[in-house]
Amino acid sequence: MRALGIDFGEKRIGLAVSDAEGRFALPLETIERQTDRRAIYRIADLARAQSVEMLVLGEPLGLDGEAGDAARRVRRFGDRLARVTGLPVRWIDEALTTIEAAERLRRAGLDRGERDDRRDAVAAQILLQEALDRSMMDSER
Q1: Is 141 exposed, middle or buried (0-12, 13-18, 19+ CB in 10 A)?
Q2: Fewer beta carbons within 10 angstroms: which end of the chain, N or C?
């Protein structure tokens, strides 16, 4: 099952897509968020073009695991996106994915500008891969 990973941010939204078997996540792109409506329709168009069957959204829970204002904001965005696309949404804790993405890109030797350009899509890749790995573990039980 092909899935689209989404790392929501107020300025940028990172996107990643899985392979057709739902095993591997690959960074797709980062979109500049001007309005929720534009972002939702852009993501919906990408989901159709990529033959996506499920959306995976990062939920920014606090370190205590509680949902704060940021998590509620992402939930509203995800609910609207699900209505527009007709696709199911899976939520996954995205704690520290952006920091991990920046560190991976730094270790890969990218300069600061290249890291900034790719960070959000790599963060989406990290959260999508986590969701795919969990699904594979659940199906093996």
Answers
A1: exposed
A2: C
Which range marks the domain in which residue 55 is found?
3-140
Count of structural domains within the chain: 1
Determine the residue type at 7.
D
Torsion sign, CA atoms 26, 16, 21, 59? positive
pLDDT 10s digits, 73-109:
999 999 999 999 999 999 998 876 776 766 766 777 7
Q: What is the CATH number of the domain that holds 133?
A: 3.30.420.140
DSSP calls for 5-43: EEE--SSEEEEEEE-TTS--EEEEEEEE-S-HHHHHHHH
pTM for the structure as a whole: 0.86
Rounded alpha-carbon distances, angstroms, from residue 77 to 15, 17, 22, 38, 130: 15, 19, 24, 12, 21
